């Protein structure tokens, strides 16, 4: 597919529900080029020279924030980080006023993480810089969904027709929602399993999505398994009993991994609770691409910056 068919220039990256298969394909193809830059001794190109990017994070993050920051810097942009605990936000400044302040400084893009669903969409309505959603509550995490697709394609050579098992707390997972939108658009078959209290009801009505009561049934003959993080705050809410019980019934261990295809690829968005949702043997085993996901995240975020700020052209 030629890159001339579609452009993302000026597009807000709010969720993969807003992306077509062609737009996703453009990001994945561009990320391949960006990964080559990461492997160089000198990781610097002038693609975004003169552009300015602000990361605005209302929730803690290591991987995502650092990944976006490095992506911008590798492309030659000026990147400034704002975190809630070290800004006027602690003085009671509203989200709208914070956004207006950043806009007034003339930035080109705002990468935003917020605990409220819809916060990124709200930002896109009130200010003019391109908004890239780095996670809004349990709603969406589009760049994570894209880097998962990129990682899978790097290993499998294609996406269409692959069977993916997503295990765990789908109900509260913005990663799972983005994955499901992206994977379905790219022709993948999605199988979901986890505690009934942590599975959204609407999923069983969606075509190409199969919900299982037992994780063994979801894993059987899978090409890819994505394990979601146990969110310990859910345990306090009584949505599952104990971490030990969770590991026994829903954890991915070597025994369960053997039910999938021999070359199954194991993913996890991180941070991992090893020994709970995933055993250390699986997390660091031959089938795992969990560390590779981190590197691929930088490449995919470089691709997003390049496409939304320049349309893919060298400026």
TrEMBL record:
InterPro entries: Asp/Orn_carbamoyltranf_P-bd (IPR006132), Asp/Orn_carbamoylTrfase (IPR006130), Asp/Orn_carbamoylTrfase_sf (IPR036901), Asp_carbamoyltransf (IPR002082), Asp_carbamoyltransf_Asp/Orn-bd (IPR006131). Residues 160-307 form the Aspartate/ornithine carbamoyltransferase Asp/Orn-binding domain. Pathway: Pyrimidine metabolism; UMP biosynthesis via de novo pathway; (S)-dihydroorotate from bicarbonate: step 2/3. Coiled coil: none annotated. GO terms for biological process: 'de novo' pyrimidine nucleobase biosynthetic process; 'de novo' UMP biosynthetic process; amino acid metabolic process. L-aspartate binds at residues 91, 174, 229. GO terms for cellular component: cytosol. Residues 11-153 form the Aspartate/ornithine carbamoyltransferase carbamoyl-P binding domain. SUPFAM superfamilies: Aspartate/ornithine carbamoyltransferase (SSF53671). Its EC number is 2.1.3.2. It catalyses: carbamoyl phosphate + L-aspartate = N-carbamoyl-L-aspartate + phosphate + H(+). Carbamoyl phosphate binds at residues 63-64, 113, 141, 144, 270-271. Keywords: Pyrimidine biosynthesis, Transferase. PROSITE patterns: CARBAMOYLTRANSFERASE. GO terms for molecular function: amino acid binding; aspartate carbamoyltransferase activity. The keyword Transferase applies. NCBIfam families: asp_carb_tr (TIGR00670), PRK00856.1 (NF002032). Catalyzes the condensation of carbamoyl phosphate and aspartate to form carbamoyl aspartate and inorganic phosphate, the committed step in the de novo pyrimidine nucleotide biosynthesis pathway. Belongs to the aspartate/ornithine carbamoyltransferase superfamily. ATCase family. Heterododecamer (2C3:3R2) of six catalytic PyrB chains organized as two trimers (C3), and six regulatory PyrI chains organized as three dimers (R2). This is Aspartate carbamoyltransferase. It comes from Mitsuokella jalaludinii.
């Amino acid at each position: 597919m030629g890159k001339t068919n579609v452009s993302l220039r000026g597009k807000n990256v709010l969720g993969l529900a807003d992306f077509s298969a062609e737009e996703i394909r453009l990001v994945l193809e561009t990320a391949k080029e960006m990964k080559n830059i990461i492997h160089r001794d000198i990781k610097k190109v002038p693609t975004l020279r003169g552009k300015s990017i602000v990361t605005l994070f209302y929730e803690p993050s290591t991987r995502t924030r650092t990944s976006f920051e490095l992506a911008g810097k590798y492309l030659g942009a000026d990147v400034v980080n704002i975190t809630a605990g070290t800004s006027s936000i602690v003085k009671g400044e509203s989200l709208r006023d914070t956004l207006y302040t950043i806009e007034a400084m003339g930035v080109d893009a705002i990468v935003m993480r917020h605990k409220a669903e819809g916060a990124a969409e709200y930002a896109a309505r009130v200010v003019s810089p391109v908004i890239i959603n780095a996670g809004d509550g349990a709603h969406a995490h589009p760049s994570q969904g894209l880097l998962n697709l990129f990682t899978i394609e790097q290993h499998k050579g294609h996406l269409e027709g692959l069977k993916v098992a997503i295990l765990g707390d789908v109900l509260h997972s913005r990663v799972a929602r983005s994955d499901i939108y992206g994977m379905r658009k790219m022709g993948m078959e999605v199988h979901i399993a986890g505690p009934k209290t942590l599975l959204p009801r609407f999923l069983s009505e969606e075509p190409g999505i199969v919900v299982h009561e037992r994780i063994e049934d979801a894993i059987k003959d899978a090409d890819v398994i994505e394990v979601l993080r146990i969110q310990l705050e859910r345990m306090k809410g009584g949505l599952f009993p104990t971490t030990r019980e969770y590991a026994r019934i829903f954890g991915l261990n070597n025994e369960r991994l053997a039910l999938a295809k021999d070359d199954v690829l194991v993913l996890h968005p991180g941070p991992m609770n090893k020994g709970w949702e995933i055993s250390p043997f699986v997390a660091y085993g031959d089938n795992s691409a969990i560390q590779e996901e981190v590197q691929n995240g930088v490449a995919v975020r470089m691709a997003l910056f390049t496409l939304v700020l320049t349309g893919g052209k060298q400026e």
